[in-house]
Design brief:
The chain has 484 residues and is α+β, with helices and mostly antiparallel strands. The chain is built from 13 helices and 16 strands. Helix content is 30%, strand content 24%.
């Protein structure tokens, strides 16, 4: 009995790893672990270069993938659009007679292309960096003073969030969906000053200041605990928010990030401000946000400037490294628009991705996509499908290096930075991680001690332990894979 207790302690104690070549032992512990009695889990490990199965368990069982679903979305985008694809946001001018005054007004139309990087914090340090070149180029092109309207056209996408996203997610920054004209990562910040333990935290400020005047916030945030456990609730396009939960006590300017309503309209106000600094806009200009694909035609307008995004490979890098849901949903809808020739939607994007992988010879049995990011619990996939897709990517010389570089490295960076430290997996494993309530997964590539390159997928659902405890249990398996 004593030996059994010691063995269990050695297996599950944080920072202590079982002997190598122990994948079978780990699987047996999983089967007997009381925390996993009600759980569903599976894994699939393939030879990356051949697709041959090395080891598997329940690899045909469909499981909730959480953010590991992003590998399906981002790889399909690289395959369909190419790593050098860029988004183009076009600025047009046109004249239109005012029905009241009879004068011709000079208007500015900005047509979005679904670019998630448009003034994103990943690419622009501040607003000045974003606007300086834009305004200068508009002036160089001879932009006249805008006397009529600034129209921001977000109609490239349908601008609806996936129908299966839950209320507890959609008001938060990680619930910011795709928009035909995204801006500033489609999020804004609420800063709190928290007092002593179990006291009400007070809102110190809101950034950008535009939303302090527009948004109505009902806050019930307590000072308690050691982590950010505050959640924002509200209609994605509404201007009322309720915030509940806890933040650590005794903090100044503690930031909580929320989903931004109508980002295209906010961009119009910011653009108006920047144009005003250069005497390029009339004080009575109207701000219009358009979501009707047929409302404005660029054929009758003059193209003044094209804002070009960073290349897709950079956008994919941040999508996977930062597990950015907004980026992933934007990529999904972009694929839907490109492949269907119609408005970008979740449905069109899913169809484009599924058709791409079917054409690449992947049996998609068990794959059910409800979004592109993995935030929805209505998503499911088998570990066999995930590992097979990873093996296909590995054998694609045009895709693999870019895709692989987007995955966090074990023990080094991203969501893998604290995993597998001090083991052979450190620096030899790259994986996309995923976590939502009672669903955790890892999928990617590893170079084993014997020099084999393996593609793997590991998914666990509905476990009874804490997320941190489940992470430690899976870590044992990640380390053991390096001995195959």
């Amino acid at each position: 009995m004593t030996k059994i207790i010691v063995l269990i302690f050695l297996f599950f104690a944080p920072g202590i790893f079982v002997s190598q070549n122990s994948l079978d032992e780990i699987l047996e512990f999983y089967k007997k672990d009381k925390d996993l009695q009600h759980a569903s889990f599976g894994f699939c490990i393939l030879d990356a270069s051949t697709g041959k199965t090395i080891r598997e368990y329940n690899s045909d069982v469909a499981l909730i993938p959480a953010s590991t679903l992003k590998i399906v979305t981002t790889s399909a985008a690289l395959g369909i659009l190419g790593k050098d694809f860029t988004y183009k946001t076009n600025f047009y001018t046109f004249q239109k007679k005012d029905s009241v005054s009879g004068f011709n007004n000079y208007n500015l139309l900005v047509k979005g292309s679904g670019d998630p990087s448009f003034n994103s914090s990943y690419f622009y340090y501040n607003d000045s960096v974003f606007y300086t070149s834009m305004i200068q180029k508009l002036k160089t092109k001879g932009l006249k003073k805008i006397t009529g309207s600034i129209i921001t056209d977000a109609s490239y996408f349908d601008n609806a969030i996936p129908s299966t996203w839950i209320w507890a997610d959609i008001g938060n920054y990680f619930g910011a969906g795709a928009n035909g004209l995204s801006y500033h990562d489609n999020k804004f910040s609420i800063f709190y000053n928290s007092g002593n333990n179990n006291t009400i935290a007070e809102i110190e400020s809101i950034y950008p200041d535009y939303f302090s005047k527009k948004i109505s916030i009902n806050s019930h945030v307590l000072s308690a605990g050691t982590e950010d456990d505050a959640f924002v609730y509200g209609d994605p396009n509404g201007y009322s928010r309720k915030i509940t939960g806890t933040i650590p006590p005794n903090k100044k300017k503690y930031e909580i990030e929320a989903e931004m309503p109508e980002p295209a309209l906010f961009f119009a106000t910011q653009l108006q401000t920047e144009l005003n600094k250069n005497n390029l806009v009339d004080s009575e200009v109207k701000l219009i946000m358009n979501e009707n694909p047929n409302a404005y035609s660029e054929n009758a307008a003059q193209l003044m400037y094209t804002h070009t995004s960073p290349k897709l490979q950079k956008i994919v890098f941040y999508t996977n490294q930062k597990s950015n849901n907004h980026y992933a949903e934007s990529i999904l809808k972009t694929l839907g628009a490109v492949k269907s020739g119609n408005q970008g939607s979740t449905e069109n994007g899913i169809k484009a991705i599924e058709n791409y992988w079917k054409d690449r010879g992947v049996d998609l049995g068990g794959l059910h996509m409800a979004d592109g990011s993995g935030l929805s619990r209505a998503n499911s996939i088998t570990t066999k499908v995930q590992a097979t897709i990873l093996s296909k990517i590995y054998r694609d010389s045009l895709m693999y290096s870019v895709f692989n570089a987007s995955l966090p490295i074990a023990g080094k960076n991203g969501s893998m930075s604290n995993l597998c430290k001090g083991t052979f997996a450190e620096n030899n494993m790259r994986a996309k991680t995923g976590y939502i309530n009672r669903a955790r997964g890892y999928c990617g590539y590893v170079k084993t001690k014997s020099g084999k390159e393996l593609a793997f997928s590991i998914l666990f659902n509905n476990y009874d332990c804490s997320p941190k405890e489940m992470k430690l249990k899976i870590e044992k398996l990640l380390v053991a894979i390096t001995d195959l």
